Amino acid sequence: xxxxxxxxxRTFWLAFLIIAFVIVFIIFIRRRGKxxxxxxxxxxxxxxAIKDKITEKEQELNQYLRKLWAEHAFWTRQYVVAYxxxxxxxxxxxxxxxxxxxxxxxxxxxxxxxxNGAKIGDLLKVQLISxxxxxxxxxxxxxxxxxxxEKKWHDNTEKLVxxxxxxxxxxxxTELAQHFKRYNEMITNMSINRLRKKHGEEIxxxxxxxxxxxxxxADSLTKGIVRQFPEQFDKLPEPEVVAVKEEAKK
Length: 250
Fold this sequence. Notes:
Layout (H helix, E strand, L loop, with lengths): L1 H50 L4 H30 L4 H51 L2 H25 L5 H23 L3 H30 L10 H11 L1
Helix pairs in contact: 2-3, 2-5, 2-6, 3-4, 4-5, 5-6
């Protein structure tokens, strides 16, 4: 009986060790797979950067602008939630959103002087005022106020785009205007769905607005700055710029 008990014991522990080994092996394989996947992803990004001739300085600028515009989308959503919910934190959230708009202005002011940077920040703040009026119209069910405020919001966005193109003609006005218009549309949809308590659609709209802010607006701004100041990013001037300079020397 003792021998049988010992054998059963050994069989149990052997089976236990085999199962434990299999579990550890599976975890190891999955972790290794994730590491390889991440490594492959980073390698792909570097290859694409080399292919597109994106320098490290350009990547640094792009990451910084993406951070600011990601925060812009995030704090705009927080503002919408606090405003429509009548939350006590609405003033603090508004201050944080205004701070982000000032940061965006200063980030561009580094290239186009502080005065122009401050004006960009002010234009963004004027946008927020008309956007807030639109939300107020939604809450009070004042359709006329909502429509007029929404139009002001879009008009102020057009003024922002006009000013940006004025200080840098390397920004394509049509492209930039489309990116901002798309962003406004998604934020409006998000606000409407929030008010109607359609939270699944609200989140979907926010995801689109966030992607637009990061991948379209921030990336377009980056490309325009790099095209205007190529030497600051270890890049050669564009062919047409070189041709104009050569012509001026003659």
